[in-house]
Design a protein that fits this description.
This protein has about 230 residues and is an alpha/beta fold. It has one domain (about 5-230): TIM Barrel. Helix content is about 30%, strand content about 20%. The chain is built from six helices and nine strands; from the N terminus they run βαββαβαβαβαβββα. α3 (about 85-100) links the parallel β4 and β5. It starts with 16 loop residues before the first strand and ends with a helix.
Length: about 230
């Protein structure tokens, strides 16, 4: 598999990775050419909700466009443990997400935890307990077999979560690391398993978008696309 020409990478630079874009209200419909996106990306991750009450204002339009153009999709929830620090807060955020996607959330569910939104002063165990409470509520509402991804960066993994799962059930990881080229992947932090999805840029120029956008690589290529999105290239 070769890198898309417009990325400017050497031919054959990506033998086993597929392009995924992730979008939200930061991208308006008139800034996206869905025909081009569907031609170049293998899947799209769309932000559905934030916190306990908010639905992304572009979620339904983005989801409809992805369906119309045959682009496999997943959906994300932006977590706010700093505002809803109790485990009941995690469950309420999960319920918000589940209610928003009842008429279709795609094949993948992901929880996005940003450094500014972690539990203030919480230990790694406290942080993991909050995340696991969110996952548990999602499973109760959407199905026990669901295996949500966790979006994080190196600071979250090392400083906030203690650099390990702490003996808990692992999460499939969606790892953000912009320090380097768009390919090959970086060396993953110590103790962290290889992620499913690597966010290689938060400001890439992707064909089909009018302004810079997040660019991700689905590691594992066609097998990963089939496993997680139920789709084939």
């Amino acid at each position: 598999m070769s890198a898309p020409d417009w990325l400017g990478l050497p031919p054959g630079a990506m033998p086993d990775a597929l392009l995924v874009v992730d979008i939200s209200a930061w991208q308006r419909q008139d800034e996206l050419n869905w025909y081009e996106l569907a031609a170049h990306a293998s899947a799209v991750m769309i932000r559905a909700t934030e916190g306990k009450h908010d639905t992304d204002v572009m979620f339904h339009a983005h989801r409809q466009s992805a369906h119309e153009h045959g682009l496999p999709l997943g959906t994300t929830h932006n977590a706010y443990p700093r505002l809803h620090s109790k485990l009941d807060g995690a469950r309420a955020e999960a319920a918000n997400y589940c209610h928003a996607i009842t008429d279709g959330g795609g094949a993948v569910t992901a929880l996005d935890i940003e450094p500014q939104n972690v539990l203030p002063g919480g230990s790694p165990g406290d942080q993991w307990a909050w995340l696991d409470a969110w996952r548990g509520q999602v499973r109760r509402m959407l199905g026990a077999a669901l295996d949500p991804w966790l979006y994080l960066n190196e600071d979250i993994w090392r400083r906030v979560l203690g650099g390990s799962f702490g003996g808990r059930e692992p999460w499939p990881l969606w790892f953000a690391c912009y320090y380097g080229p768009l390919w090959p992947p970086p060396i993953w932090p110590a103790g962290m398993p290889a992620p499913v999805l690597w966010q290689a840029s938060g400001s890439a120029h992707v064909v089909g978008t009018a302004k810079p956008i997040d660019l991700d690589w689905l590691l594992g290529g066609e097998a990963a696309l089939a496993e997680f999105f139920g789709a084939a290239v």
